Amino acid sequence: MKKKIFLISAGLIFPIVFNIIFFLVGGTSHPASVWMSYGWIMFAYILGFVLLFVQPKTTSSAVFGFSVGTVSAVYFLVEFVLGIIFICIASGDYEIALIVQLVPFAIYLCALFLCLHFNSRTAENEKRRGREIAFVRRAYFKVKGIMEMDEAAPLHAELEELYDLIHGSPVQSSAEAKATENSIYDLLDELQEKISDVSAAGDLIKKAKRLVNERNRLVSLAY
């Protein structure tokens, strides 16, 4: 929250200073081309500033913010230079000012949409990968927790084999493997409850190994 407040406060510096200079130096009586250029400059700045706050919330947000921010910053600088030129010229013919400033805006929109498209796709891939690795992470941490239980000492070798099998499993998942993964979760919960029963726990570990191998087979068939 403090970071956003700081960014917003910093972002207000340019429009405040620009407006003070614009109205103190030039007053309020201007031809249409000047007001149009003033509007383009303010629009380019506000648009670029707002876009920095609507990036996908992922671990790659810094990259997304940089790419969108870079495109917006380049457009703003171009628009600022063009706008200042037309403000100084103060021509009564607004058509030229409109056409000249529409061109960089159109180019900016194309670049922006492409950037947002690829960024959104990357964000979706990142979220999907996070969901995919959830099984391996959750399962091997579960087995590791069971291995640390005092009652698990007689089954340490078997649990270590299961741990290594899960740890070496592909992080990708598939729709076909979801049911098997849920069965593995349930089996590990049952194993934790029955770990003191060496015979029953041993059978559960063997069953868990078979299910993990089946899950890995289903995943390999999907890719």
Describe this structure in words.
With 223 residues, the protein is mostly helical. The protein contains eight helices and no strands.
Rg calculated over all Cα atoms: 30 Å
Q: Unreliable runs, pLDDT <50, ≥5 residues?
A: none
Tally of helical segments? 8
Class derived from helix and strand content = mainly alpha
Helix content: over 70%
Question: How would you summarize what this structure contains?
Answer:
The chain is built from 8 helices and no strands.
Any chance you could write out the topology, listing elements then pairs?
Layout: H1 2-11, H2 13-26, H3 32-51, H4 61-89, H5 94-147, H6 156-167, H7 178-193, H8 198-222
Helix pairs in contact: 3-4, 3-5, 4-5, 5-6, 5-7, 6-8, 7-8
Give the key terms:
223 residues; mainly alpha; 8 helices; single chain
